[in-house]
Specification:
alpha/beta; Rossmann fold; Arc Repressor Mutant, subunit A; 6-stranded parallel beta sheet; 10 helices; 13% strand
Length: 219
C-alpha cells in the first residue's frame, strides 16, 4: 500500500512528537520528517519530498503563510495543511490565498485529522468543521465589500448541485455529504467538479461566496 508521506513543521518539539505519535500506527500515513523553521524545512526538502506538510502558521523568521507561498513556486506538488492554534478569519483566508489546501485547529479530533489528510492528499480542500462558521463570516464580509468572482445564475444548477453547494458551505466533509445525500464520495467529487466548471469558480471557498451571494445559505 502506498503511504501518504507527511512532514511536520512546528517550532515546538512536544507538538511534533504528539502528532507523530498519533499518526505512527496508521497503515496509509507515514511521518517521514520534521522541521522547526522554514529554513530547516527547505533544507530538508533537498533530501526528501513529502506529499503533505502539516504546518503551524506561527514560526520563527518565516511564518507558515510565507512558506506556503514559496512552496507553491518551488515545490508545487507538495500539499499544505495548516495545523495551528490561530483560527481567526484573516489567518484562514490568507492561508488559502497562499495555496494551502487544508486548515485545522490543533485541538482537532484525531479522526477528523486523518480524514483531512486523506482528503487533501486526493487534491480536495478541507476546512475543519469547528471553524467553518469563521470561514463563512470571513468570505461573507469580503464579498460585501467587493470581489472579482463572476457568478452565473443559480438557475443553471441542478437541485442536487445546489444541495452539494449548501453542504460544502455548511462545512460538511465529503463523506458526510455522501451520507446525507445517499450518494458515493466519488459522486460528490464529480458534482463539485461540474459545479466549479459551470460557475467558472476555482475552489470550495469560492462556492461559499456563491452560496451567500445567491441566498443558498444564510448567516
Amino acid at each position: 500500500m502506498k503511504k501518504i508521506k507527511i512532514v511536520l513543521v512546528d517550532d515546538h518539539n512536544i507538538v511534533r512528537d504528539g502528532f507523530k505519535n498519533l499518526l505512527m500506527n496508521l497503515t496509509d500515513i507515514k511521518v517521514i520528517g520534521e522541521a522547526s523553521t522554514g529554513g530547516d524545512l527547505f533544507n530538508l526538502l533537498k533530501k526528501i519530498i513529502p506529499d503533505i506538510l502539516l504546518m503551524d502558521i506561527t514560526l520563527p523568521n518565516m511564518n507558515g503563510i510565507a512558506i506556503t507561498e514559496k512552496l507553491r513556486i518551488d515545490y508545487p506538488d507538495i500539499k499544505v495543511i495548516m495545523l495551528t492554534a490561530n483560527v481567526d478569519d484573516e489567518s484562514v483566508f490568507d492561508s488559502f490565498k497562499a495555496g494551502a489546501l487544508g486548515y485545522l485547529p490543533k485541538n482537532i479530533q484525531f479522526d477528523e485529522l486523518v480524514e483531512a489528510i486523506r482528503s487533501v492528499y486526493e487534491g480536495n480542500e478541507y476546512i475543519a468543521r469547528s471553524i467553518s462558521d469563521v470561514v463563512l463570516k470571513n468570505y461573507f464580509n469580503r464579498n460585501k465589500i467587493g470581489g472579482n468572482i463572476h457568478f452565473r445564475s443559480k438557475q443553471e444548477l441542478t437541485k442536487r448541485e445546489l444541495q452539494v453547494i449548501e453542504s460544502f458551505a455548511g462545512g460538511f466533509s465529503y463523506k458526510e455529504i455522501a451520507d446525507q445525500l445517499n450518494i458515493s464520495i466519488h459522486t460528490v467529487e464529480s458534482h463539485k467538479k461540474n459545479i466549479l466548471e459551470k460557475l467558472e469558480l476555482n475552489s470550495i471557498v469560492d462556492l461559499v461566496k456563491y452560496a451567500i451571494k445567491h441566498g443558498i445559505i444564510n448567516l
